[in-house]
Write a structure and sequence with these properties.
Rossmann fold, about 35% helix, alpha/beta
């Protein structure tokens, strides 16, 4: 058995720094994991364009295809609301929806996916609008004027939380932040009834290695990426970039976060987030999954 060296570089959530660190690491690493966050992920995709090394993407949901060999393990931002029509059918049949485009590329992809899912289900949104940071109240007013009972979409946690607070008692929300524990911590009882996409919610199958107590989806996604990379390495028989890339493209498996399958450009097509709903209980707000994807969808 040969020794394994693990190196972790802190990109400080700075896309330019992330790109520099990743390209430097690519020259020496056999297995290379990308950064957390779509801004940093896009910078890495641009910096690695045309290079042979494979980057395992566990934390950037909105990454353009640049020719970089980036393998998406998590569900892409456009898939976050794939199950929104089904979820609304369970909790609010016939409800009208306004879709909000949060600032940035991630928010735009999330909104586009929500619009597409609603349209495909025959219930297009009554309004699609851009969120202006620090004007959450105005956004809610616009949605209400359009006749919406729900606001769906999401982006940065701080923007989503402001929108959820402005909507409290006025209309329901389906926002990205409502898929994670932070929403319950910040909104308290006001989070009840909201929907959120969750890449991982702790349900079976359990990870093969125990995650730290209190670990949320970023840790689960990172572990899933490591497991997929391990399988690809075994299938390839070496860490040579071409062999590793071909193995990743051929893999079809399921990890604790769900199915894994990518197209010939590394886009994740097997996994989409489940959708959770918050309920207020005597012990405080609790998330429960009400919709799960049925399997791989191109």
């Amino acid at each position: 058995m040969r020794g394994i060296e693990l190196r972790i570089d802190d990109d400080r959530s700075d896309p330019a720094r992330s790109a520099r660190l990743t390209t430097a690491a690519a020259r020496r690493a056999e297995i290379l994991f990308g950064p957390y966050g779509s801004g940093s992920g896009r910078a890495v995709a641009e910096a690695m364009a045309g290079r042979p090394e494979v980057v395992w993407n566990h934390g950037a949901a909105a990454v353009p295809r640049t020719g970089a060999r980036m393998v998406d393990v998590l569900g892409p931002a456009r898939s976050y609301w794939r199950g929104l029509p089904a979820a609304l059918g369970l909790v609010a049949p016939g409800a009208s929806v306004a879709v909000v485009r949060a600032p940035g590329g991630f928010g735009a992809k999330v909104a586009a996916g929500a619009v597409a899912a609603l349209a495909a289900a025959g219930r297009p949104p009554v309004l699609v609008f851009d969120l202006e940071p620090e004007r959450a109240d105005a956004a809610v007013e616009a949605a209400l004027r359009a006749g919406a009972g729900w606001i769906a979409g999401g982006g940065r946690a701080e923007d989503d939380l402001a929108l959820a607070r402005a909507a409290a008692g006025r209309c329901a929300v389906a926002l990205v932040v409502c898929g994670v524990a932070l929403a319950g911590e910040e909104l308290g009882a006001a989070v009840a009834g909201s929907l959120g996409p969750a890449q991982w919610d702790g349900s079976p199958p359990v990870p093969p290695f125990a995650l730290p107590a209190g670990a949320d989806y970023p840790a689960a996604q990172a572990l899933a990426a490591a497991l997929v990379a391990e399988r690809a390495l075994a299938l390839a028989g070496s860490a040579a970039p071409d062999a590793l890339w071909d193995a990743a493209s051929a893999l079809r498996l399921t990890t604790h976060i769900g199915p894994f399958a990518v197209d010939d450009e590394g886009r994740q097509v097997g996994h989409a987030p489940c959708i959770a709903r918050w309920e207020d209980t005597a012990a405080g707000p609790v998330r429960g999954v009400i919709w799960r994807p049925s399997g791989a969808e191109a």
